[in-house]
Amino acid sequence: MRFTFFNDFLALVFPQTCAVCRSSLFDFEELICRSCQVQLPFTTYHQRPDNNDLALKVMGLTRVGRVMAFLRYSKKGVSQRLLHQLKYRNQPEMGVLLGKMYGHELARNGYKDTWDGIFAIPLHPAKQKRRGYNQSMMFAEGLSSVLDSPVRDSLLRTKFTSTQTNKSRMERIANVEHVFSLVTGTDLKNKKLLLVDDVMTTGATLAAAANVLLEAGAEQVDLAVIAAGK
């Protein structure tokens, strides 16, 4: 009883607010109010996953299957605001929530039991130590909880790379060459995998990581991100 009173007191003094519109959340809402959830800039890439502009971005860089994004990315838009909170405002739970939301959408469209495992683009250990978590792994965990595909953490980032921001397409490709590897003994032979990241710009990072999985024997690698722009 005392614990409940204390929680109610905290909620009164420090109300939880929606990450999008800043209105107070009801007890049954998590991070994003229901009104804002239905107005998120959703995409339909999962309905045409091998024939869209994202697939064209990675063509020639890797031989992946489906390429999908949950939200459309736009500067100063809702998706950028959510990603900023996920990456820089210490809100790993935002990644999990977005993963669950997209997982439900994928399940409704027949994707449940599609993948043998889900990989997240890893951060360099030094960067993850500073941030405290890998935002892409949070997205993967949300997806996994809905799609019943296990998260695999055997993909490693072995080189510290400078930020991809403000780099040209060719510079981005060169920046992530030979960056990723797998834990010794990882068996991916004939596996169908989903590789996820927070955002796709040119697709260079995802393509480099996907090639490592394919070279290790994966039968198919599909890509999914929280947000991507054309």
Automatic annotation (TrEMBL):
Domain Phosphoribosyltransferase: 136-228
Top-level lineage group: Bacteria
Pfam families with a match to the protein in the record: Pribosyltran (PF00156)
Family affiliation: Belongs to the ComF/GntX family.
Protein name (database record): Amidophosphoribosyltransferase
Record organism: Echinicola rosea
